């Protein structure tokens, strides 16, 4: 069987799980999830129980990208904390099994909102969903990283300095056409970087509503997914990531809230969401929020440039969508420059 980002060698997976996963029993079938551009993710179905397999894509990859082993470690460490995660079962670091590293976790039977307007919900439920998203974010940033064994999960030093350097290198490694706004943004972030305020917390790295599973008939968060970019860093990057998503155009493509009357939908303003987060963490407020927002636009631009490069190289998880989202790199770069200007 040809083993690509779109397929899975079911015989190899079934044999491995039969030997290594207690309680596993076939027959096994699988279906690839449509969402996600980085690590191909599959629903594994058996008569007794369903699981989820998340793997590195095959082929030549950027250094430090697609860190499924880190995803497995952080979610294992958060088990039993105030941050809901799926139960982790096993990590396979042997590339010879299916061609790349993978892990297996529980399948969470809930619902996922790709559109933050949540058109099928009432105003009260929309508000409750967003408030629980806020609660979980604050809880994440209050995790005692040493107590859960993640004290070494990220290097010390200025998080933004480190991240701007890392993603600038990643961007340059996957650059396809020159984008002047991106070059200007990378330099502006270096020039306007705030001093390190000493906050050092666990950060998700891509915290947004479509990376969360909620109750099927309720508004509580059941699991936060997609921890590939998680590290020890600065919490305001996660908070700004939420606001960045909301500033995108409304609809299936942008998945944002730009131009909408949020009050009429029961949704909080940016300022209300930030204030509620600060209240939960006991913070007086946030200065220079434009920098953190700009950083998130920059990082997302670098990420989707990598997605575009993988599509052109034939390694994308969802090639058609990858080509489409890749066209947004200049837009994210320009939004980043705009955010820096306040």
Automatic annotation (TrEMBL):
Gene Ontology molecular function terms on file: kinase activity
Superkingdom assignment: Bacteria
Xref: Gene3D superfamilies: 3.90.1200.10, Phosphorylase Kinase, domain 1
Keyword Nucleotide-binding on entry: no
Keywords for the protein's UniProt record, in alphabetical order: Kinase, Transferase
Domain Aminoglycoside phosphotransferase: 30-253
Name the UniProt record assigns to this protein: Predicted kinase, aminoglycoside phosphotransferase (APT) family
Organism the protein comes from: Sedimentitalea nanhaiensis
